[in-house]
């Protein structure tokens, strides 16, 4: 009864030893079959002493001085078409969204009341004209009689005054006729400017009032069209200098991702003061917009070219780093990266001008900056071949004479096991002879 616990513990120990041995044998077997991995060329990351980087040379060339901003497409003219007289809207002749020319008929109000007013004014004018003609005849008669000393001077003067009075009444009545004719002409609502129509705000058959605030329709001028944007205060002096030059300044309108140029125009005017709230100056550019690329109230990215600089050193903007000591770059010399303080200039299309700190053909680090320190050993991508590239690509073994493979037929880049490429008797263990296994019955009997 006291021995059974001991035996149980011993058995457990034996079982664990057997499991451990099997595990060790399995590991040894797997390691023997798996080809050893090539040792790494370098250690990457923060703890490594060597980093792989990509470099670009410092280039010398031209660079455009540009101002970038966000602008709003603004029509040069926008009109709300309103009726100048009241009445029933007989018909609407325009199509929503269509382009119209100045003077095109848009709608028509019932002209009957205004035609009647015109005829009434014209009748009153004819009556006054007849009275004036009769007074002028009497005046001529009185003048003859006065010359013969047949009437008094007072009677002649009274008749002359009556003629002048009738002439004044005729002018007043003529003005009423002109006003009635003008009121009648306003029953035809025509386009005041050329542009694109909006949505109709009133339908035919409605009774509308003169100078209604809603109007009938809006017309927006789209050809040409303007873009309003702002320029920072620090760039205003250079902008004013370029604007007052001999050539017009080109302005480009780009889409939201700044990859496509929508339209190209020119700078038209500058505001007369800087906005103290934002510290910017409002400017306006004009675009022909012949293909309707720009739409009113559309937001666009604006690129204004002020001038160009020739023979300047440039590097990609991503290569320039910023620290407490100012801007700097990493320059690769003798397979080491060194910090070089630089003075930057204008930026254009992802490249920045370097006015001080670099010279042409210096190699500047563009990728791998996060792993660099001053004086760290680096390997430039493309300068050295990558070890193990042939084996990684599964290169076929070199063939010897008569098309034979290497020793033992082993492919290059593959590790050889013990005894590989040797004869069956030279390996670690001899293989059985087929001839011996296929012996004749007579030999077996012997």
UniProtKB/TrEMBL annotation:
Residues 117-187 form the Multidrug resistance protein MdtA-like alpha-helical hairpin domain. Belongs to the membrane fusion protein (MFP) (TC 8.A.1) family. It comes from the Bacteria. The chain crosses the membrane at residues 12-31. Its main location: membrane. Keywords: Cell inner membrane, Cell membrane, Membrane, Transmembrane, Transmembrane helix. SUPFAM superfamilies: HlyD-like secretion proteins. Residues 224-306 form the Multidrug resistance protein MdtA-like beta-barrel domain. Residues 383-446 are annotated as: Disordered. It is found in: Cell membrane. This is Efflux RND transporter periplasmic adaptor subunit. The keyword Repeat does not apply. NCBIfam families: RND_mfp. The keyword Signal does not apply. Residues 77-220 form the Multidrug resistance protein MdtA-like barrel-sandwich hybrid domain. Residues 396-408 have a biased composition (Basic and acidic residues). Residues 312-380 form the YknX-like C-terminal permuted SH3-like domain.
